[in-house]
Structure formats: C-alpha cells, structure tokens
Design a protein that fits this description.
The chain is an alpha/beta fold and 593 residues long. The protein folds into three domains: 21-193, Thiamin diphosphate (ThDP)-binding fold, Pyr/PP domains (Rossmann fold, 3-Layer(aba) Sandwich); 214-378, Rossmann fold (3-Layer(aba) Sandwich); 392-560, Rossmann fold, CATH 3.40.50. Helix content is 34%, strand content 16%. It has 22 helices and 20 strands. The strands form four sheets. The chain has a six-stranded parallel beta sheet with strand order 3-2-4-5-7-6, sandwiched between helices. Strands 11-10-9-12-13-14 form a six-stranded parallel beta sheet, with helices on both faces. β15, α17 (414-422) and β16 (430-431) form a beta-alpha-beta unit. The termini are far apart.
Length: 593
C-alpha cells in the first residue's frame, strides 16, 4: 500500500488581494485557507466536485491537505476529534444526498458536546432544488435541530462572508457545529471575488453574553466563604474555555474538592488530592457521596445532565448552587441555581480568583476533605483479582501505567465508562462522545487527533460492538500511516446493553450477543494493512500492550476479556446518586457512616 503522509508544513496565507475573477469553489477553498484551515476530512461526490477540483489545486500549492475517510460519518468524527484535541475549528466535507445525511450523526455528536465544526456539503444545482433531483436532500432542514447555525449559499459572492461568519459562530460563545450547503452551480460560477478577513464578518443578531458583574462575583465569593462542604462540579465548558489552570488555582487556594463530568475529564488533575474523579451513573462512589452531602455546589461549564444527576430532585439536595455558564439557555434548564454567573468561564474564574486571593487561607473545609478521604479509602474503584482471565478493568489500569501521557479516544459503552474511571488525562487528552453516546466515534476521532498532532501518542479504547460501526476507517489509518493504537475490550457482547438486560430486564438478552458473526479482528486489520494482535491470557496483557505501543504504525489489539463483567458503581435509573449498586460494602455512608 502506498502511504500518504500527513502534512505538517503549509504555505502561509497570501495577503488580501484586490478583486479577481474566480469560481465559487476557489472562493470557498481560499476562504478556508485564510481562516487557518490546514486539514479537511471528507469524501467526494458529484455535487461537491467543483469544490474538490479547487481543493486538488490547493493541495498542489501546499495550502492544506485533504484526509480521505471511508465514510462521511468518519469525516465528521475525525473533524470532531481534531477540534477537541486542539481547540480549533474542525472542517469536514460531504456531497449531497446520502453524503450529507451520513454526516448527521457526527453533527449531532458535536452539537451535544459543544464542539466547533464547519461542515460543508455539496447540493444539487440551484434550479434543481426542490425537484427531488438525483441525490437531493434538504440537509439545511434536516440538521436544523442539531446545528448552531446554517447557510445555503445562493450567490457565490456570499461565500467569503459566510465562511467568515461560520468560523466566528462555531468558535465563539458556546462552541458548536455550523453547516454551509453549496449548490453545485454555485461552485462552478465565476464572479468578482473579494476575500474577507477572518473575524471581520459576523451574522446579524449574534451576540455574546457579557461577563458577570463584580457584584455577582462577590456574591459568589460570599457563598463560598459561608460553605462548610463546598464542591466544584466541572463540565466540558471548562475545557472549551481553557479554564483548567484557573480551576486548579481556585481549588487549591480555597481547599475545595473537584468532581468532573465525562466531558470535563482533564479539566482537573485526577491524581490531585482534591480530585474525587467523575460523578454520575458510573462515577466514583466518593464523588457521588460528595455531591449528595455538599452544602454548596459550584457548577463550572456543566449542564446538569441526567447521567450526572440521577433522580434530579435528589441531586445535591442539601446544597445551594452557583452556576458558572456561558450559555444563558442552560441556566435553570434542569436545576435552578441560587446564583447564576453568566459569561466567559475563564474570565469569570480569573476575576473570582483575584477577589478570593485577598482572603487568608482558611481551614473551614478540613473536616469535609477528611470525610471525603474516608470515602475514598472505604469505596475505592475495583482492583481486578489475579487471574489468567483478563478483567476489563485491568486493561485500563495497564494502559494508565504504560501510556500515561496519551491522548485517549473512546467508543461508547462499558469500555468507555471503565476508561473514564481508571484513566487519568490532561486537558483535551480525553476525547469521547458524551452527550449523544455515539458508537463508532473512537477510531475516526483518533484519526483527527493524529492528523492535528502527529507526534503525540493516541490510544483508542473500543468495544467489539462499537468498533464495527466505523471499522472501515482502518483504511484511512493505513493510507496515512497514522499510528493509532486501537484497543478492543472484547467481551463478545454489547456490554452495556447486556448489563442493563441483566439488571433491569430479567436477564432476557435480546439481540445483544455479538459472538455469532464476530470477525477475526486480527485478520481484518491485516487485510487493511494494519498490524493486528490478539491477547487472551492475563500474563500476556502488559507485554502485548507494550508491543503495540512500541510499534511505529497503527495497531489493532483484540483483548479477550471476561465476558460477564459489569461496570460498577452504577446509579440505577430513577435513583439518587447515593443509591449506587455494586459497592464493596452496604450503602448508607452518605451520612458518614
């Protein structure tokens, strides 16, 4: 197989030029280049060919690089991983009709997790719109509920302003995906083109919330001063705002423990003594007990998701709530706060830190921290027993030891929750579909991360069911020699579905077994030109994983784990966070017993 290297060096944007005659495809590619786009993930087709023709010429000039995926969903997820790892806007292309609809799952994934994407679709020519022409779909209408903003380009003269607006909307405020639909004849039509400088064109009516007033921040500080059992509850907004450093400084100065959501992993060092790990349905016992017993909950860029809160009216029942949030629509959507602090999280936390540093350090949380330490000691995460049978948890523990600085992408299911429980990640190093729970996300997301950061180690944690959702992207890994390490936690089930069927559906395992029809993953990987390994004995686990990590190209590792293992702790549906199952001792410790 001929390997296509991922490019890292590109020509710099040319100075803004006078009006010139170009076609719409050139205007689009030039505008993307001027907005700093260096990689585009996509798949060509008839309606988008005028744009791909100009993309070909741009690649020859060294402006940017197109990464050819094997399915448009892979393009959206790769652009998503690219954006999460870098904080930059990810870009993906798809053609009209099925090409556009194949992007929908990736768009919804990005919308739920507030990831900035610019999605560009081809469309049938303007005269054919509305005639049910070949490969016509109304992707503008289809995506309205799952997009931050969208445009259909009716005039090629609008391309440059629309691209400038798209990048501004995607990245500013609460990030999210935007869509530009380009009819084929718009890409072909020539016109007098005038480039638009990035940031100079904003959509009418698009505004950002102002920062909180000093008065509001002083009220927040007064509430913190009066709390005996405060807790930071941190979501993905802290990552998006690059507020992790400020969060650490605040937690250390105020001696307040920190719990994070699945999206918030990496916003606070989970090896830090103030960390209580992830909370929620599969969170740590001590995080869930802490949120149940706290008297002040300081939510930072979090949205009180149902997988975090459990039974909503029992969530943090003794606590006042301060909600730091950039999106006013999230305020009181699920939990009504006692104080809302709207605006840019980084700016507001920075000002709060300035105010609170005027206070002398206090020991008022000492008893609270001691109580949490008691819970940590009494209810640690499960330690797998010594056995020739591989427990899935020990795979994650081994990876935590062998690849501590890796970027981690995941698919969705039990393996995702085990990875969240056991792995320790830095900011932007945890990349997982959280809100939508998209199976098949991990491997294309790893493609995006490695395209952006080719010198960084990337590990994808997958399940034997999830990996099949986008298994074709092994071809993309092979073509671009992207050295992702794909670790399949293979229990021969749709693991989380099986666990729920066991726990809540009388052990009626309907359509959740995956052993019949399971491929030989090693042979399949090798068919794509990717190295494959299989590990099925405990004694081979760490040597096998180390061999995969040491390989200089992509590797797929099929780890055969104990099939019936469940992911605990678990908050059953309709229960409070203190009513976890799967704890090593009887519950009832929420009051410190």
């Amino acid at each position: 197989m001929t390997v296509t290297p991922v490019r890292t060096g590109f020509t710099t944007p040319r100075p803004l030029e006078a009006t010139q005659q170009v076609n719409g495809g050139f205007a689009l590619i030039d505008s993307l280049h001027r907005h700093g786009v260096r990689h585009i993930f996509g798949y060509p087709g008839g309606a988008i060919l005028p744009i791909y023709d100009e993309l070909y010429k741009a690649e020859q000039r060294g402006w940017l690089q197109h990464i050819l995926v094997r399915h448009e969903q892979g393009a959206a997820h790769a652009a998503d991983g690219y954006a999460r790892a870098t904080g930059k806007v990810g870009v993906c292309f798809g053609t009209s009709g099925p090409g556009a609809t194949n992007l929908v799952t990736g768009i919804a994934t990005a919308q739920m997790d507030s990831v900035p994407l610019v999605v560009i679709t081809g469309q049938v020519p303007r005269p054919a719109i509305g005639t049910d022409a070949f490969q016509e779909t109304d992707i503008f209408g289809i995506t309205l509920p799952i997009i931050k903003h969208s445009w259909v380009v009716r005039d090629p003269r609008n391309i440059a302003p629309i691209v400038a607006q798209a990048f501004y909307v995607a990245a500013q405020g609460r990030p999210g995906p935007v869509l530009i639909d380009v009819p084929k004849d718009v890409g072909q039509e020539c016109f007098d083109y005038r480039p638009v400088e990035p940031g100079s064109c904003r959509p009418p009516g698009f505004t950002l919330p102002p920062s909180a007033t000093d008065c509001t921040l002083h009220r927040a500080l007064d509430m913190i001063r009066g709390a005996q059992r405060p807790l930071f509850y941190v979501g993905g907004g802290a990552i998006a705002a690059d507020a992790h450093g400020l969060l650490t400084s605040l937690a250390e100065h105020l001696r307040i423990p920190v719990t994070t959501t699945l999206m918030g992993k990496g916003a606070f060092d989970e090896n830090h003594g103030l960390s209580v790990g992830m909370l929620g349905m599969h969170g740590t016992a001590y995080a869930n007990f802490a949120v149940t017993e706290c008297d002040l909950l300081i939510a930072c860029g979090a949205r009180f998701d149902d997988r975090v809160t459990g039974k909503l009216d029992t969530f943090a029942p003794h606590a006042q709530v301060i909600h730091f949030e950039i999106d006013p629509a999230e305020i009181a959507k699920n939990r009504c706060p006692d104080l809302a602090v709207v605006g840019d999280l980084k700016d507001n936390l920075e000002r709060l830190l300035t105010f609170c540093k005027q206070d002398e350090p206090s020991s008022r949380t000492a008893a609270w921290l001691q109580r949490i330490d008691h819970w940590k000691q009494r209810y640690p995460l499960m330690t797998p027993p010594a056995s020739q049978e591989i427990y899935p948890q020990e795979v994650l523990i081994a990876l935590r030891d062998l690849a501590p600085n890796s970027f981690v992408t995941t698919d969705v299911g039990q393996h995702q929750m085990w990875a969240a429980q056991y792995l320790r990640n830095g900011p932007r190093q945890w990349i997982s579909s959280s809100g939508l729970g998209t199976m098949g996300f991990g491997m294309p997301a790893a493609i995006g991360v490695l395209t952006a950061l080719p010198d960084h180690p990337v590990v994808c944690i997958a399940g034997d069911a999830s990996i099949l959702m986008n298994i074709q992207e092994l071809g993309t890994l092979a073509q671009y020699h992207l050295p992702a390490k794909i670790i399949i936690i293979n229990n021969q089930w749709q693991g989380m579905v099986r666990q729920w069927q066991e726990s809540f559906y009388g052990e009626r395992y309907s359509a959740s077994a995956m052993n019949n029809g399971m491929p030989d993953f090693v042979a399949l990987a090798q068919a794509f030109g990717v190295k494959g390994l299989c590990i099925h004995r405990g004694e081979d686990l760490r040597p096998g994983l180390q061999a995969a990590l040491d390989h200089d190209g992509p590797v797929l590792v099929d780890v055969r784990v104990r099939p019936g293992e469940n992911c605990y702790p678990m908050v059953p549906p309709g229960k409070s966070n203190a009513q976890m199952v799967g704890l090593p001792s009887p519950a009832g410790v929420a009051s410190g017993q």
